[in-house]
Specification:
The protein is mainly α. The chain is built from 21 helices and two strands.
Length: 357
C-alpha cells in the first residue's frame, strides 16, 4: 500500500507513513517501502507541506513574485543578499524563499548563481536588530533543498552543519525553520539522512519536540520521520535519545499538523524495528493511536495513524493482540470504505495485519 506519494525501496510493514514538509519551505512527502513494512513521507499535499512561504509584512513584493518572476527580479534580490543593510538582506531572503516555493527553475537559479554563501552567513551571523533574519534564511534554504538536484550542493556547502547549530539557538522560530530545512534536505536523499545524524542533529531535533510552539514540534517531527526512512541506525538513535514518548504525547495535541507528523514519525521510526515497536507499546502509544483513529475526522491525520498501526502490529504479536483488544479492527473496517486512496490503502494494510493468522 502507499499513502502520500513517491515511493521508496524498503519493504513495507504497514501502510506508508505520513510526513509533512517544513514550515516556511517544507519538503515533499514520500512513501518508503520495506520488505514487509512501509514508511511514509509526505509529498506536496498537506497543510504546510511541500514548501512554505515567509510572510514579511514589510516586504509586499515577496508574495507577488511567487512562480516565475519578471526578468531581473531574482538577480536583483541576489544582489540585496550582499547588502550591508541587515534588514534589506533579510527581506531579500524572505522574498527569495517565496519565489522558490513553487518553481524548480528559481531554486536552481539561486543556488547556481551563488546565493548559498550569503544565506549561510545570515545563519551564522544574525543581526540582533532583525529578528527574522535567521528564520528567513533557513526557510529559504528549505525551499531551495526541495530541488532534487540541489540537495547535495546545499548539504556539502556547509549549510547543514550551520543549520544544526541554529537548532540549538534560543531563537525558536529560527530553530523550527532549521528543522524544516534539514527535513527538506533528507527527502529522497539517503546520504543526507546519514549526514544529519553525523552532525549530531537528532538529539537537538528531539529537544525541539518539547517546544511550546506547535510549528517547531511539527517541523522536528517531520525531520525525524524523514531521516528514519531506510536508515536503521537513525531509528535506533531516535529511540535511544528518547523521541518516542514525546511523539506519543504529541498525538494528543489539538494541532492537526502535530497529530499528523507525530503519527508519521512513529510509523517510520517503528517500521522494521522490533525494539522501537516494543518501546512504543511500553510508553502507551497503542491506546492513544486507537483513540485518535476513532475520534479524528481528518483524512490527513487518519491515514498516517492507520499506517502507524500497521507498522507497529506487523511481525509483533503483542502489539497486534493489544490493537485488537482496543477495538482497532472495527474502526479500520469502517475506514477501508474511504474513497481517499491513501486512507483506504493504509486502513486496509492495517486491517490485514490485524486479521492475519
Amino acid at each position: 500500500p502507499g499513502a502520500g506519494g513517491g515511493g521508496g525501496g524498503e519493504g513495507v510493514e504497514a501502510p506508508p507513513e505520513a510526513t509533512a514538509p517544513p514550515t516556511q519551505a517544507p519538503p515533499p512527502e514520500q512513501v518508503e517501502e520495506e520488505e514487509d513494512e512501509e514508511e511514509e513521507d509526505e509529498e506536496d499535499e498537506e497543510d504546510e507541506e511541500d514548501e512554505d512561504d515567509v510572510d514579511d509584512e514589510d516586504e509586499p513584493d515577496a508574495e507577488a513574485y511567487r512562480g516565475v518572476p519578471p526578468a531581473g527580479v531574482v538577480e536583483g534580490l541576489m544582489m540585496m543578499l550582499t547588502s550591508p543593510d541587515a534588514t534589506e538582506k533579510a527581506k531579500a531572503a524572505a522574498a527569495l524563499c517565496n519565489i522558490c516555493s513553487e518553481t524548480d527553475s528559481n531554486r536552481e537559479l539561486v543556488v547556481h548563481a551563488g546565493g548559498l554563501p550569503s544565506l549561510i552567513d545570515m545563519l551564522k551571523h544574525p543581526s540582533p536588530e532583525v529578528p527574522f533574519m535567521q528564520s528567513a534564511a533557513a526557510a529559504c534554504i528549505c525551499n531551495l533543498a526541495a530541488n532534487i538536484n540541489s540537495k547535495e550542493v546545499i548539504a556539502t556547502s556547509g549549510a547543514l552543519e550551520v543549520l544544526v547549530k541554529v537548532l540549538r539557538s534560543e531563537n525558536q522560530a529560527a530553530a523550527a525553520q532549521a528543522a524544516g530545512a534539514l527535513w527538506s534536505l533528507c527527502v529522497d536523499n539517503d546520504m543526507n539522512k546519514q549526514r544529519v545524524a553525523d552532525a549530531d542533529a537528532i538529539p537537538h531535533l528531539i529537544t525541539l519536540l518539547h517546544a511550546p510552539d506547535t510549528f517547531a514540534q511539527s517541523q522536528s517531527a517531520g525531520a525525524l520521520s524523514e531521516c528514519s526512512i531506510r536508515n536503521d541506525n537513525n531509528k535506533r538513535l531516535i529511540s535511544e535519545h528518547g523521541a518516542i514518548l514525546p511523539l506519543v504525547k504529541m498525538l494528543r495535541s489539538q494541532d492537526l499538523s502535530v497529530q499528523r507528523l507525530s503519527s508519521c514519525a512513529l510509523c517510520n521510526v517503528c517500521a522494521n524495528h522490533e525494539a522501537n515497536k516494543r518501546q512504543a507499546r511500553e510508553v502507551g502509544a497503542l491506546p492513544v493511536l486507537v483513540h485518535l483513529l476513532s475520534s479524528s475526522q481528518v483524512p490527513e491525520v487518519l491515514s498516517p495513524v492507520a499506517g502507524a498501526i500497521c507498522n507497529l502490529s506487523m511481525k509483533c504479536a503483542d502489539n497486534k493482540a493489544e490493537f485488537i483488544r482496543l477495538g482497532a479492527t472495527d474502526v479500520l473496517r469502517h475506514l477501508v470504505t474511504s474513497p481517499i486512496p491513501s486512507l483506504h490503502g493504509n486502513a486496509l494494510a492495517a486491517l490485514e495485519q490485524l486479521e492475519l493468522g
